[in-house]
Amino acid sequence: MDAIPTSNMARGTMRLAGERPEPEFKWSCAPCRKRKSKCDRVQPCSSCTLRGTQTSCYVSNEAPRITPTSTKAPAAAAEDTATKRRLEALFEPALLDVGAGESKRARQAPSDSMVKFQDTLTKLSRSIQKLQHDGVKGTAGWGDTRPPWGDKLVQWDDLKDVLPTVREGNLFLDVFFTEMQWVVNYISKDRLDASWKTLTTDGRISRFSASLICSLFATVYLLCPSASAAHEAIKREPERFRVLHRTARTLLNEGSFADDEEFVDAGDIVGNELGVTFDQLQAYTMYASYCSLAGLTKKTWVSVGEAVRLGKASDLFDESRWARDRPCNSILDDDEVEYRRRMAWALSTLDRWQGLHYYRAIDMADDFSVHPPSFVSGDPSDPAVRFGRLMMGQSAVIRDVYRFVRNLTRMSASDRRQQAVLIDGRIEAWYSDLPDWLSYENACCKLKADDPQSYKLAAQALLLHNSMYKLRCILMRPFLLDPAAPHEMRFAALRNARKILEAMPLLVTLSNNPWTIIPPSWPTHQLFVAASTFTIVFLSSPSESSATDGSTTSSEKHAYSKWPDWPAEDLDWFASNVFEAIDTLHLVGSGMTGATARVSKRLLVGLISEREKLKERFADWNEASNRAAQTRARKDTVPSVLTAQASSPLFTSPSDDAKPAATENNGPLSSFSTTSTALLPTPNSTPPGPDAFPDWPFMAPWEWAALTDSFDNGQLDFAT
Fold first, then answer.
1. What is the pTM assigned to this prediction?
2. What is the pLDDT of residues 376-395, one digit of tens each?
3. Is the peptide bond prior to 44 cis by the omega test (within 30 degrees of 0)?
4. Of 639, 640, 645, 638, which is closest to residue 683 (Cα–Cα)?
5. Gap between the Cα atoms of 370 and 389, Å rounded
6. Quick one: which H or E segment has residue 493?
7. Half-sphere CA count of 498, side-chain side, radius 13 A
8. Are 499 and 441 in contact (CB under 8 A)?
9. pLDDT tens track for 668-699
């Protein structure tokens, strides 16, 4: 037979009858190429017909057709066409009667054994794909082995080498819920106690509950005050927090536990289609909080994004859907509603802080439909209530500052100044709502050696004080290089940065106090903002171009570099106290694994390493200054301080004897008139170079300037 039928049904019948069809396509079909099996090159081929994949055989013109008429004479082509029509007329009536069984050539239905075989192959294929997916996604635990728990609920034996003993764990929980609630206030004590009790009595808990416990214990290791009963256990194994941190991340990375029906009951599901549990949301949020507190910059950014996206997918930020999407037989209790609200507000604040720190897009830039937690309307005399209310108000001003910074280049000069003044007023109004016992001045004056509570309140007051000036500093910093800005606005960032640095004595005092909790990343960020603000001044060169448009003349273009224009008092003060700032960063950031403390110290070390250039700047400023006696009175102050310290290394590793005695000052608000000799060793005769600071790689001034954002480097057009 020279020709083949064009009807698919006819071709299938011929193949079942033992006829070998003539190829219609030049290539094999995609399923046969994938299976590496022989293909008839017709549609559908016998291989696809046997395996039930006819719908995937030669779809979307994946292979060119063979055109037999192109190689035959017209008479032969006409004969082929007539033959095809006769065969179609012959076979199609028989195929229409397949159900009646009148045609022996009709294709028979697949047997039961073939159907079962096909189902088995499908299941095996899916199992292999799942194993491959889990193998790529999973994270190794210790060494190169997989974690022992796999796809099952977690038991004590799975984590006994990671977690502390039961007694130590009970101490950690007590410390967390009694001392650290003002830092992390969205963890339900009842639910966590129940999970811990189940785990320690040979019960089974979800991997999310286990991850939450690991993150919480790691936070206790990081923040636990030395006077706490749990501190002795921490001293015995000071590095355990690293294992707890890695285990918490590994538990979050494990595969789905959707088959654990005995754990996921109807009352525990958050209202959503993904089946996200309340413990799962808490676990992701707690891990993000730990990374933020520990200064793990990259991990914080990733984990906060994971937690926010999970919260959005599970309607955490839309309270109206919490009850509507839940099963009809489950009711949200008041306790769960309260902690969901706290978690939503905590996540939004954390996301906004991260976006402001690193100038990245944030997920929670807009308002969300969640009522404030109960502490907003609680007893104002309760310190936790008052502090929580202030933190919620802070979230709104963080968003305002973030929007201003992100839209800075798209605003005109007048709009920038107007918006900055408006937002600065909001920040000041937020801070003015502080009660007397949380104000910075009162907290400093009421410190009593025999009253641990006074130190705890002072820690909260200090962090709120520095946060307020940090926001105002970030807000006003772009105007430092704007010669057209009003004088008060232009140098407001320097005054705000000085307020943060002036609080260093109290920060040192509280860091050394056995009763206080100072999250290390918070003051580190605050000191970094203050130090980098002054760095803009000291690392700016008189020969550098100002941030003006191209229409300005040369003298106008460099107006910002006329040293008499800069506030002499603030520059002198910073030059005299930059060493204290470095020592404070070293003390507060000791033990941190994050990049913020390291970059902050490297920033100041790089600045001080160029002391000769710094002295030249101040010499130029002194020569050009025609001001009154206050400038001339300070003429020799800064060079003398720099000359006295120009030959000295920065500092040695701090010990108990080398720590500054902050309590001996007249008060935390007393400014430093000279460099504290307690913080610096005896000057040597050789100026320090890059090799004098092995712990912090030396960076040139232009590299430090690259650490600041575009408007800090003078790339912003202030004239538009």
1. 0.61
2. 777 766 666 776 777 778 88
3. yes
4. 645
5. 15
6. helix 492-502
7. 19
8. no
9. 223 322 222 222 222 232 323 333 222 222 22
